[in-house]
Design brief:
The structure is a single chain. About 40% of the residues lie in helices and about 25% in strands. By secondary structure, it is of the alpha/beta class. The protein has 3 domains: about 160 residues, 3-Layer(aba) Sandwich (Molybdenum Cofactor Biosythetic Enzyme, Chain A), CATH 3.40.980; about 80 residues, Alpha-Beta Plaits, CATH 3.30.70; about 150 residues, CinA-like (Maf protein, Alpha-Beta Complex). α3 crosses α4. It is elongated, with a radius of gyration of 27 Å. Pfam families: CinA, CinA_KH, MoCF_biosynth. This is Putative competence-damage inducible protein. Belongs to the CinA family. InterPro entries: CinA, CinA-like_C, CinA_C, CinA_KH, Competence-induced_CinA, MoaB/Mog-like_dom_sf, MoaB/Mog_dom.
Amino acid sequence: MKTEIINVGSEILLGDILNTNARYLSSVLNKLGCSIYYHTSVGDNQKRLKKLINLALERSELIVLTGGLGPTLDDITREITSEALEIPLEHNPKIAEEINCYFKERGITMPKNNLRQAKVPRDARILHNSNGTAPGLLIETKNNIIVLLPGPPNELKAVVEESLLPLDLFKPMDSIVSTTIKTYGIGESQLVEKIEDLIQTQSNPTIAPLAKEDGVHIRLTYKGNQQYASHYFSKYKKRIDERLGNYIWGYDNQQLNQLIIDRCAQKKLNLSTVESCTSGAVSSLLTDVSGSSKVFWGGNIVYTDNCKKEFLSLNSDIPNGGVDKDITEQLAGQLYIKSGCDICLAVTGALGPSTPHNNVSVGDVFISTILKGNLKTSKFKFRGSRETIKSRVVYAALFKVLKEINTL
């Protein structure tokens, strides 16, 4: 089913809010076999919205509009959809009563303008909203299905999951199923070179690379009978593994922090960290995992030179503002002595925009690991904003830990 998602609201175009609804709806509808052809955002403008709805009616079968169902004058989606379809709006007493009860239960007098939400296109199916006053609406015409959903994400999800999905609207369609192969240590362009022939010759499943924080993901997407998907996925996973096996670290919903904690538990290893530039972000990710206390000894933040000196019991100055191979190795060594852990990780670096020393450039990073007494240090050079570099350092550190664990 050719599907179009139209997000209504000037706040989206102004960048005041993040459009999470489009992502959520695309994910849900794709799994149901809908082919998402268009994503469009439009402001609270009657002429532009009507023009867009008319265009959608010509080129799409399923049209999903979000937002603009509130009680104020700039909430125009109901009215303009009604105009475009040439279907009159009618007062729905049941909706009016539900809205009144919503306010009464909260001890609030219902504002009169909320009754605008009880006006719906004739013969529209009402999609109950358990989290708000704006019901969703479903309108079926000869050539189209039009769904109107409230804009607030918690209300939209409630309407979709409680009222829309239970309908038999989507049952006859083929499923769209995806699986993901996760890689690290190889750039997107280099990865594409290794599997370019597979990408270009495959139509079902499709093969697409996606650059993410934790490396480059390869998404395989199959459309059809779900029982055949695993056969095709196995076939192409094997071919991709033959070319990229050394870079593959996980699949689908596997998360790096969970994988590290699980591997440590399996191999009866404990782990500790000492961080400077990442200021505890590595240990934070590790302790996000339930049960991490069984393997994670603890984390130290040594952000300033004075803190590093105290941690290392040094009397001399810290060289290069602490962004230094020798200092990073000393931090790892001291942590190994203090914690007695099997794996110790130390991270120093300059995230920018300024640098702690003339000998240091923005993006210079040192990461040291000690695994059962064996010290290894790597120097990295990252580019980007302070936030981007920090994220990349965190994942580089975690992957270095995983690599060491995998040697055992």
